[in-house]
Amino acid sequence: MSGRLDRNLNSAITEGYRSNRKKRLVVEENSRVKGFALDGPGLLEAATIEITDYCDDGEDCTNERTEEAVSRKWKINMKTYGCGYNFPLIGIVGKTATVVTKDTETKYTVGGKTVNIKREAAITPDLQGTFDVTIDGTTHFNVDVHIQERDFLDLINKNGEYSSVEMKGNCYERHWRLERRYSGHHGWHSIDSTNVVGVGEVMTYVMYRDNERGGLVMTPLYGDWLRTAHSKPQVAVKVGGIQAFCNGTCDYTPSDAQTPTATSLTPSSGGSGTAITITGTGFGTTRSAVTVTLGGVAQTVTTVTDTAVTIALTDAVAKAHPAEDIVVYVAGKGNAKVTDGVTLTYTGSASAISPTTGSVGGGTVVTITGSGFDPNNAGVTFSGNAGQVTSATYKEIKVIAPAGTAGVAPIVITGGAGFVAPNSASLVYTYSAAGVPTVSQISPGSGSVVGNTKVTITGTNLADIKKEKSTDCDSALIPLL
User: What's residue 183's pLDDT?
Assistant: First the structure.
């Protein structure tokens, strides 16, 4: 019985998987068959067979004498070339199956015995379709799932960024490993597999980094990156943006022992001309070697000893200046270290205004003199209405007065953060309607769009208006006759 079943099995394999020449297989236990042509979409790469014998008691007696076996089971594992699938179920030559169940199970009667053929698992179908892949910000559309490694590398390697592409996986699962030529941080890639089809399979594409190395590419490579390591700070010299080579000792070490100090100021406030004494250490005795600035403005140094510097205040913004605004420089040593908390308050003044009278219609240019004004943020209000500042220094502000009502207008000078407004009570500006030009009528009220229409303006105090040669009527200049 065993020999007959063996022969029938050989016939079954030949019938189910045949080439045009119908080559016949002779299979034995644990044998491997290569290059066998299939009737489906592919070639059979290999087949292995496991044989199990069963005795009359139903027990496995494979290792006993086969003559004692009453039944035999063949388990055939087949591997295809490429991605073939959907192969027909094997059958027995010359026999008609008595039971057929959806290409998964058949039954034959051979010599009064029943032969069952059952497919335990089918080959997973090959992936089909296309996908879109985004790499380095560029999306490549409709890439075939069967694309070869060389073609994939050519597709994405427009700038020579990648050195290799390796495809891993099988017919129903694909992985591509991309290797860059240059290290460093790079963005994530993404894949859209909407148009990829796999029968009975759920496909998930995951992009990941299996090896990320840091790095930095600089073009050109500047001299700072070619400097050698030192235990002390180094002096760097650049000529035309190019780092100079240090052909000797370029060490520079800041020293507390060589740093001048400024620990206090007396008095701690004052205005223009006030004498201020700065007490500290390391100033030397040469007056020309010491300079003092307050808020970036140079002050007048009058006397210098090793422990004290006396200055006469010149200009500064009227406010309390913190330690970082007070700079004492000693030639050959550098800036003095000013003790935290030391402040110097500059007090401003507003001493004069010209002219003191102007039109209620505004437009009068007013000059205010004094000290401590804020050149960068100066502002002036007339009875609370802001004028237009045209220029400002520490000692002078020019402002165009706004329109106002007849009478005395209080003036307030403003500045930036921390600004202390000087006392402006002595500044008297009076709005007056006397002599102010008025317009009561314009005739005609309309004219040619190309000009040359004679217009008569009626009013008071218009005697000097012709000096301007033109007048502004709702932003349209009208030439005067």
Answer: 64
pLDDT at residue 473 greater than cutoff 80: no
Query: CA-CA distance, 224 to 245, in Å (whole number)?
Result: 10
- Cα–Cα distance for residue pair 109/94, rounded to 1 Å: 11
Query: Which of 352, 351, 348, 369 has the alpha carbon at shortest distance from 418?
Result: 348
3-class SS at 280? strand
Tell me if 421 sits within 8 A of 350, measured CB to CB. Answer: no
Tokens found for residue 114: 């029943």
Written as one letter, the residue type at 410 is: P
pLDDT of residue 474: 47
Q: What is the pLDDT of residue 46?
A: 60
Q: Is the pLDDT of residue 3 over 50?
A: no
pLDDT for position 77: 76
Determine the average pLDDT of the residues in 328-341.
94
pLDDT at 232: 85
Cα–chain center distance at 204: 30
CA atoms within 13 A on the CB side of 401: 28
Give Cβ neighbours of residue 35 (< 8 Å, ≥ 6 apart).
43, 44, 45
Q: How confident is the model at residue 102 (pLDDT cuts 50, 70, 90)?
A: low
Residues paired with residue 400 on neighbouring β-strands, in sequence order: 365, 388
Of 221 and 108, the one with more pLDDT: 108
Comparing 157-166, 291-300, 341-350, the range with the smallest average pLDDT is 157-166
Encoded amino acid at 114, one letter? T
Give the C-alpha separation, 151 to 137, whole Å. 19
CA distances from residue 227 to 216, 230, 236, 238, 242 in whole angstroms, order as listed: 17, 9, 9, 13, 12
* Rounded Cα gap, residues 368 and 378, in angstroms: 11
- Judge contact between 104 and 89, C-beta under 8 A: yes
Q: What is the pLDDT of residue 44?
A: 59
Residue holding tokens 């597999």?
193
Q: Tell me the three-class secondary structure of 19-64, residue by residue.
A: CCCCCCCCCCCCCCCCCEECCCCCEEEEEEEEEEEECCCCCECCCC
**Statement: the pTM of the whole predicted model exceeds 0.70:** no
Q: Which residues are within 8 A (CB) of 53 and not within 5 positions of it... i.e. 6 or more apart?
A: 2, 60, 61, 62, 64, 66, 69, 71, 72, 73
Distance CA 132, CA 141 (A): 4
> Read out DSSP for 409-476?
E-EEEE-STT------TT--EEEE-TT--EEEEEESS---TT-----EEEEES-TTGGGGSEEEETTE
